[in-house]
């Protein structure tokens, strides 16, 4: 079953939890100055750590009999950064191959391997935002490499600005692969560039050759997501139909407060799952994973909630 077929079926899907923050905290591994986590595949310790973390998340998917989405840690491995680094374009293929190996090692789980992409600038500040055509060309390099590497889908993580998200969507659509656009959201109902969420989604859906599979958000606490979606201009049937996934972090701080924060205030697994449940009472969330502060405990609690909520909805 393809990811599109899986998604259209309405079955709840589990997505990976935190990687970068756990690699640093639990394994004392620092991101590369150029391509961040993408270089982990060239270190035995880094590759083994990534494999262990994904394995924990896959075990959660196995326990709750759910399909699983994993994405390469390549948000910063864009054309500009790779060319400034000691690495070459094979860094994309090498990261994809690690996910494929993991998938082969967990045949009991229906796993989809995704290529993670991100904005050119700071996702928390929406600076250095590329114009649409510029973004299409810039991100097209990475999208094409992911297509050649054989990923199942593409994922644009924490996109803070509509203009660059449009170009990113253009580049992803060109590959023919299913893709997801995930926004960085504040509590004011908007992206970081102050575009209303509903407006951003409608602009992308109406102007790209192939629509995204759905829209999501990541690196935002469920309470902030709920507040964002509660604004009148976002509280409508269109948003409920197209906004279908979250990768929340465990901190209740806003993006402005989190940016540059030295500590990460966390929410315990059960409490985070309760917050996700409150969100699902309002929204048809079918894809759920985790971001900063989450681990396998959080994923298991959230998996339990979204599976139970899906059961209730079907009844």
UniProtKB/TrEMBL annotation:
<keyword id="KW-0479">Metal-binding</keyword>
<keyword id="KW-0489">Methyltransferase</keyword>
<dbReference type="GO" id="GO:0008168">
    <property type="term" value="F:methyltransferase activity"/>
</dbReference>
<feature type="binding site">
    <location>
        <position position="219"/>
    </location>
    <ligand>
        <name>Zn(2+)</name>
    </ligand>
</feature>
<dbReference type="GO" id="GO:0046872">
    <property type="term" value="F:metal ion binding"/>
</dbReference>
<protein>
    <submittedName>
        <fullName>Homocysteine S-methyltransferase</fullName>
    </submittedName>
</protein>
<dbReference type="Pfam" id="PF02574">
    <property type="entry name" value="S-methyl_trans"/>
</dbReference>
<keyword id="KW-0808">Transferase</keyword>
<keyword id="KW-0862">Zinc</keyword>
<dbReference type="InterPro" id="IPR036589">
    <property type="entry name" value="HCY_dom_sf"/>
</dbReference>
<feature type="binding site">
    <location>
        <position position="292"/>
    </location>
    <ligand>
        <name>Zn(2+)</name>
    </ligand>
</feature>
<dbReference type="GO" id="GO:0032259">
    <property type="term" value="P:methylation"/>
</dbReference>
<feature type="domain" description="Hcy-binding">
    <location>
        <begin position="1"/>
        <end position="306"/>
    </location>
</feature>
<dbReference type="InterPro" id="IPR003726">
    <property type="entry name" value="HCY_dom"/>
</dbReference>
<feature type="binding site">
    <location>
        <position position="291"/>
    </location>
    <ligand>
        <name>Zn(2+)</name>
    </ligand>
</feature>
């Amino acid at each position: 079953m393809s990811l599109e077929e899986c998604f259209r079926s309405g079955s709840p899907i589990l997505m990976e939890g935190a990687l970068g923050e756990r690699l640093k905290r639990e394994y004392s591994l620092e991101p590369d100055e150029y391509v961040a986590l993408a270089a982990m595949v060239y270190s035995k310790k880094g590759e083994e750590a990534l494999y262990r973390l994904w394995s924990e998340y896959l075990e959660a998917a196995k326990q709750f009999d759910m399909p699983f989405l994993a994405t390469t840690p390549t948000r910063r491995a864009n054309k500009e950064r790779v060319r400034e680094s000691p690495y070459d374009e094979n860094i994309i293929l090498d990261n994809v191959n690690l996910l494929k190996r993991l998938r082969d090692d967990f045949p009991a789980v229906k796993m989809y391997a995704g290529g993670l992409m991100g904005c050119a600038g700071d996702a928390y500040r929406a600076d250095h935002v590329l114009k649409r055509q510029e973004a299409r060309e810039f991100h097209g390099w990475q999208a094409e490499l992911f297509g050649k590497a054989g990923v199942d889908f593409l994922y644009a993580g924490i996109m803070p600005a509509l203009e660059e998200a449009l170009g990113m969507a253009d580049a992803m659509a060109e590959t023919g692969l299913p893709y997801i656009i995930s926004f960085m959201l504040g509590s004011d109902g908007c992206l970081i560039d102050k575009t209303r969420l509903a407006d951003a989604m409608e602009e992308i859906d109406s102007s790209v050759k192939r629509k995204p599979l759905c829209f999501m958000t990541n690196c935002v606490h469920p309470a902030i997501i709920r507040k964002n979606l509660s604004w009148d201009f976002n509280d409508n049937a269109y948003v409920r139909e197209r906004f279908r996934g979250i990768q929340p972090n465990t901190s209740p701080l806003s993006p402005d407060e989190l940016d540059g924060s030295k500590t990460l205030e966390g929410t315990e697994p059960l409490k985070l799952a309760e917050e996700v449940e409150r969100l699902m009472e309002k929204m048809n969330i079918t894809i759920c994973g985790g971001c900063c502060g989450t681990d396998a405990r959080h994923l298991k609690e959230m998996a339990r909630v979204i599976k139970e909520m899906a059961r209730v909805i079907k009844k």
